[in-house]
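S2.1 Query sequence (High-affinity branched-chain amino acid transport system permease protein LivH)
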Amino acid sequence: MFNLFLLQLLNGAQFGILLFLVAAGLTLVFGIMDFINLAHGVLYMVGAYLMATFAGMTGSYWFGLALALPATLVFGLVLEFLVFRRLYDRSHLDQVLATFGLILMLSEGVKILWGSAPLNVDMPALLSGSVPLAGPLQYPVYRIAVIAAGLASAVGLWALINHTRAGMLLRAGASNRPMVAALGVDISRLFMLVFAGGAMLAGFAGAIVAPILSVDPGMGESILILTFVVIVIGGVGSIRGAFLAAILVGVVDTVGRTFGPIWLRMVMDPAAASQTGRMVAPMLVYLLMAAVLFWSPTGLFGRKGAK
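Output structure tokens follow.
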């Protein structure tokens, strides 16, 4: 039982890392730009598809990753230039409707270009295999590499935001955007940089998860819902909050889906426990969100007085 718990704990951490990579850019967009972008999950999906395409063309995972990241960044910049910047001064309802329509358009575009059948990406030989953890328990090297890459990205993003001039502007923009604009900062350029960074992080998450999960047109929508949960729990605009909330949500979701039916068997018959567990487990992250908001309405690290 302990080995199974440790395994699911690592799987939850790995899933949380992916959630953080997607949520980091989106929480900055929320916090700095006050822009609701439902289409952010599309960048995660596009990153995975570009990874599958470039890895297949070059025959190399590493070349595929090196090409997929800048390609996703460019794709995000094109969307920002053609669509998003025209919505910055519109109401939140307009933003929701426009970005939801963009999800439908891009999902259909992906089906036209790549088809509806799932795609697969071969795992690099360097990161294949498993390592021993405890007793007979083995854990895939690639999943450990995903965790390490996500932690490195989190540290790099923390250093960028807290120890660079660009990060200072981001933090100031999140706190008081009109004042930053009054001081002569090009807000449009700042917005573009935020979108570019968020697009590349989301694309990176999609690219590195491609060898683990199948690449399909619906993968962006599935992760977007949990990404919003992460942002709400962590606090809008907080990278630290997004990281801690993503790990928490990933662990609760993964461990709950595995151990929920097991724990319910203590008080219910196996068939009923299995069925009830499958129904209750997906609700755990939303119960967690409700509990956090009851304790702190702005999230774990949200700004007090934030609307």
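Residues 2-217 form one domain. The chain is about 75% helix and 0% strand.
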